[in-house]
Predict the structure.
Amino acid sequence: MALRLPRIGTSQVAALILVLLANWMVSPQFFDFHIRDGRVFGSVIDVLNRGAPVALLSIGMVLVIAMRGIDLSVGAVMAICGAIAASLADSHTLPVVLAAALGAGLLCGLWNGLLVAVLGIQPIVATLILMVAGRGIAQLITEGRIVTFSSPDLAFLGGSGSVLGLPTPVVLTFGMLALTLLIVRGTALGLMIEATGGNPRASALAGIGTKLITVAVYMWSGLCAALAGIVAAADILGADANNAGLWLELDAILAVVIGGTSLFGGRFSVVLAVVGALIIQAMNTGILLSGFPPETNLVVKAVVVLAVLLAQSPRVAGHFAGLGVLLNRSRS
Amino acid sequence: MTRSLSRLMPVFATTAVFLAGFLICSLAYPNFASLRVVMNLLTDNAFLGIVAVGMTFVIISGGIDLSVGSVIGFTTVFLALAIERWGVPPFAAFLVILLLCAAFGAAMGATIQYFELPPFIVTLAGMFLARGLSFLMSTDSIPITADLYSNLSDHAIRLGGGARFTVPAMVMLAIVAAGMALLHLTRFGANVYALGGSRTATGLMGINVARTTVLIYTLSSVLAGLSGIVFSLYTSSGYSLSAVGVELDAIAAVVIGGTLLSGGYGFVFGSFLGVLIQGLIQTYISFDGSLSSWWAKIATGFLLFTFIAFQQITLHMARRSRLRPAGVAQP
């Protein structure tokens, strides 16, 4: 993998435009915008707003996958952090609520990171533990009920609040995207993550603190999941430990894969992962707008995954790419 | 079966945990240690046990199959529609669905093999596809009223004390026995282990890697289909949302049973015990009555962690003493 040119991601952007155009065909007012009470309304804004939780998850997930890891626990972490935020919202001030929820997310990430980096457990298994137990922990926090709150401070972070005319979740997502880009691409950290994913042993020998980076990346994924959990809780003014973030880890992985990041690690694009999340949400919205039964959603998703997979497949991508992957595999 | 005793350590550990768990339950509730509870444990977890056998093969070969829960859901909906709406005789419907599942599994295996794609993401697509197709067929819960279904649920060997050795339990025990024979006594089983050790080396040894991979995923999907048949017998209905998340229970059972997720090492009997341990936790919670069901999830998570930590330590010690078992190299 000596040649790693910046990936432009034309195909992903083209796919997003294609899906948006398809939405416009089934619903002609898709690109309409209204400004009411200093807020922008419209179907496109709706796609961005509803896609925010998966987009946030995919920002953390893309870094984990770049290191040849995977984080199955993000949905359960969303449930835990949402439960904490909702149960504290009415009795504590917003900074305390946020600190507790985000802190819990970081702690979950630390647990995953330690299992992977220190105990050397395979990422799928290590994060499976929290995926199974996490929802139980969330239910322990809410005592099995759906906890509701009325605090306007926390509710502001949901879809009903707005910053500069845009829904708060959209602003939060773009803020997190900008921050993540600044950290991984503004410094050499992104390169080190790619190196660790490409060949952990060689990277460690080259002086990269692979263990520390692994733990940090899982913690970042936990932080993103916590933020997504807070947004999801603020959206419905409550926390449902059973259903908050259910199966969203799969959507996030899907978004990352659609964004062109290889599951074999070694290269990634945070922006394209977010584009992938928006493609998924635009498809969901499109199916709803078109009046097709929502049941078709999963079938469409499956077909899209297969198409993206086959396009990425070493066999299809060409002889050279296939050779490169084979070489990498036999080396590691 | 000339394996040394140390290789069987994880299975002994799982057996010990199961027996200790059963002893604790029996001490807490005197009624627990009865044939009836044991038989119910087998019946209630029959569908999970059957899926876990297939999952064991997939995981030993170094893969993973996330589609099994959706395949069970698809099977129950298909059977309900075929038997109730289309008037297909039950046994013909069983045959058709098993063939459909075989084709589905073979297609996933072929995609993994020929396009060199990670099993995780291919079977994830399979999971979406099977669940989506069952939603498309019907979103209602359809009761199955065929004579065969009521006959089969009446047909059980009565063992006294209210204990019933039911058809689902019989099917599961037969599948576990057949799975053990297939994995430990046949050439196919040896190939599965070899594949989990190293794909490249397996290919160089002259073993047909492509054929074995396709067969493994076919086996997993067929067993998921069989599990769906048992599930529809157990509930006498078909519902597109049934068995959501069963793939995770099956993976957890396989890991608790001592199989390494990196492949190359594991036992069908361990997975069977892993299923029983999860069932034991559920039964304990229902006996207690005051504990909430979420404790089951936390307990399963804790068990998973304990077993994986135990495996890591055993592996570490094995490496240090240079008695490295074949095929445990980290990917």
